[in-house]
Amino acid sequence: MNSTLVTFPGGLTSGRSTIVEAVPAGERHGLVVSETPFHPLDHTWPDQPADRGTIGGLPVVDCLTGARSETGEIFLGPDIPARRGAEGWDWLVVHVTETPLPVGTEVALDVDAAFRAALCAGHTGCHLAALALNAALADRWRKEARPDSLGHPDFDQAAITSSRITPHGSVDVYRLGKSLRKKGFSAEDLDPGKLARQVNDQLAAWVAADAPVRVEVPGPALTARRTWHCSLPEGEASIPCGGTHVSRTGELAGLVVELSLDDATLTMRTGRAG
Ligand SMILES: [Zn+2]
Questions:
Q1: Interatomic CA distance for residues 238 and 215, integer angstroms
Q2: Residue 161: burial class (beta carbons within 10 Å; 0-12, 13-18, 19+)
Q3: pLDDT of 116 over the 90 cut
Q4: Which has the closest alpha carbon to 154: 165, 144, 169, 164?
Q5: If pLDDT is split at 50, 70 and 90, which confidence band does 105 have?
Q6: Which end of the chain has fewer surrounding CB within 10 Å, N or C?
Q7: How far is the CA of 174 from the centre of ligand 1 (A)?
């Protein structure tokens, strides 16, 4: 049993490895190497898009998570019948190409570094915006709620339904329904414009603080339980995270959110001002 070793959590965008498996990916070819810098789309929480780049000089047209069962069967992306990192499975990074390459070939792996950097900015901004949103909504909780790492009730974790990272941005969707009300959250008279201004004031302060960001990596395998950390003036923030990040908040100049409320859905769009 062997899961793919990954170097993207440390920020790498290139490497060399050997093709250890070739699996059909529809009409295309899924190539697995022993170690890769490519970040694949996660099948359980598909927030950060797959990296782009080349393998053995061939364009990587998609990069998926794969899971190999104890009997050796390989499932790809949404077809995987187990949760991320479940025991008894090998977790694989599957580089999808239009042209096959034989198992045993040594290849260069090169990630599109500019696209990756834009996703890193989007992902770090997404986490900071979630923490700032939690802080801005803290006084709306009537019951004790699970706190985030800065001690505010974790609205983000309690209400999020989807999160999508984009180059330099993200879109997070929150459900303000009955179950959140039962947990003690009041959405009464919520003014998205006013809330966005509060969040943006906090984000501007955190960008100005130029706080260091790092990813804690307990092991080299794809599904190791990694944690995002940011040493903010208020304290050490941390969030479980499988993605990639910038190294300082100062790289996110102009980070702002827009909030919209539609029925019982709050949507937070994070991006760069202007
Ligand atoms: Zn994350």
A1: 9
A2: exposed
A3: yes
A4: 144
A5: very high
A6: C
A7: 16
